[in-house]
Amino acid sequence: MEKNQAPGRKILSTGAGKCNLSNAKINAGHYHGGAPGFAARTLKALPPAHVLDFFGELGLLLSAEADGRIFPRSRKAADVVNVLGNRLKEKGAELLLLTCAQSVKKNLSGFEITVRRVPPKWDKKAAPGPLRTITADAVILAAGGPAHPQIGGSALGLDLARSLGHTVKNPKPVITPLKIKEKTVRELDGIRLEAGLSVYSGGRLIGSKRGELLFTDYGVSGPPVLSLSRAALTGVETSAVTCHIDLFPDYSREAIFSLLAKRRDAGPERPWKDFLCGLAEERTINLLSSSLKIEPAAPAGSVKDPLLAEFGGLLKDWSLEVSGSLGFEDAMAAAGGIDTAEIRPETFESRIVKKLFITGELLDINGDCGGYNLHFAWTSGLLAGAAAAKTMSFPSSFSPQP
Ligand SMILES: Cc1cc2nc3c(=O)[nH]c(=O)nc-3n(C[C@H](O)[C@H](O)[C@H](O)COP(=O)(O)OP(=O)(O)OC[C@H]3O[C@@H](n4cnc5c(N)ncnc54)[C@H](O)[C@@H]3O)c2cc1C
């Protein structure tokens, strides 16, 4: 059952359309939240290699980047959706599209699910269909979290789980761009550059990454920011969190100062703006030198060693204060969700309602950036599917092959 007009809409947007579906370095240390040992028990029940084999059996060729991220070899998320869709067809699964589950109730014989047909987004005039009821022996709740509502993310699944007696921890956006307090950063909107990024909370280093930074009209994004956003947003609730950008991660402070000093002494008459030319991304270094009130027309030689060292210091350690996130619209995942103490980590069956299974991002467990969240969605889905099939009574002519 899927409220969108096609299944797997979120998968299509993953990894910028390439679908970073797993990681060669999967281990429990890459998962956050969750009851102690939950992720480890799940990964033991279905080792990561088996998940990759499952995709291999579906016909999907995979390849890994040097950093461990695993993608379809075609680098097309649509291939992932298609091989999964083909398997559903082969197994004779019925897909109820544009169908939203409104309520799930447990009774003595199984479950009653109230559903409503939802109008497609393109049909502005269509009204929602009438409510109808579907009965089921077992239910797998795989409704995802509230991240990216524009492509189907919602809190509906959390509401359904709550109505069945589950505890829900308040969801929060993670793997998300960060808003920056300093308004001047807006001048850099659209600039991408390779840099080092370290995040400090209350003066304590909480993480460092290197990669492509993207400046936006509200702050910063790009892989290093997304990776460190969970730690940054956790810290921001209690103390000042700062991003420290290193525009020259391959140079020491001393090396950068000596490079600047040599450059200055070779042409002291050159205007400062010409001195900067070719040093690093233009708008960024102009912004940094104007923050030190160095006049673009001033001769480079007028910038004496202490000011030059200060400028070099900014190139190596430019500090910006984090003010928060942009909410779920821009987040790739949600932290929080259904308490995993109420879920069996080997089958994903609810400890509260028998034959109810809950998977993926609905649960209070979230992975690092790099394929860990999709890997958890596949793992929990495969374990829940196999376990749910075992609980069902099938006609004698049909036997499930989980
Ligand atoms: C832009 C973006 C990029 C991402 N990139 C990556 C990446 O490269 N690698 C990675 O590991 N992770 C990535 N993620 C995270 C990953 O996509 C999710 O963690 C994962 O899809 C969660 O899977 P899920 O099955 O729990 O939920 P979802 O994939 O969200 O699927 C849940 C589905 O349930 C439907 N639904 C919800 N409520 C109802 C209802 N009441 N009735 C009927 N249908 C309902 C929704 O429409 C949705 O289609 C990305 C996320 C986003 C938003």
Topology:
Elements: H1 9-13, E1 22-23, E2 31-33, H2 38-45, H3 48-57, E3 62-64, E4 69-72, H4 77-90, E5 99-106, E6 111-117, E7 131-136, E8 139-141, H5 156-163, E9 168-174, E10 178-180, E11 192-201, E12 204-215, E13 219-221, H6 223-236, E14 241-246, H7 253-266, H8 272-276, H9 282-291, H10 305-316, E15 318-324, E16 333-338, E17 356-358, E18 365-367, H11 372-391
Parallel strand pairs: 8-17
Antiparallel strand pairs: 1-4, 2-18, 3-4, 5-6, 6-7, 9-16, 10-13, 10-15, 11-12, 11-14, 12-13, 14-15
The structure holds flavin-adenine dinucleotide (FAD).
Descriptive report:
With 402 residues, this protein is of the alpha+beta class. A hairpin with a 4-residue loop joins strand 3 (62-64) and strand 4. The two termini are 19 Å apart. The model has no long low-confidence stretch (mean pLDDT 94). It has 2 domains: 9-172 and 334-391, 3-Layer(bba) Sandwich (FAD/NAD(P)-binding domain), CATH 3.50.50; 177-326, no CATH class. The chain is built from 11 helices and 18 strands. A 6-stranded antiparallel beta barrel has the order 10-13-12-11-14-15. Strands 1-4-3 form a 3-stranded antiparallel beta sheet. Strands 5-6-7 form a 3-stranded antiparallel beta sheet. Helix 7 (253-266) packs across helix 10 (305-316). It has helices at residues 9-13, 38-45, 48-57, 77-90, 156-163, 223-236, 253-266, 272-276, 282-291, 305-316, 372-391, and strands spanning 22-23, 31-33, 62-64, 69-72, 99-106, 111-117, 131-136, 139-141, 168-174, 178-180, 192-201, 204-215, 219-221, 241-246, 318-324, 333-338, 356-358, 365-367. Bound molecules: flavin-adenine dinucleotide.
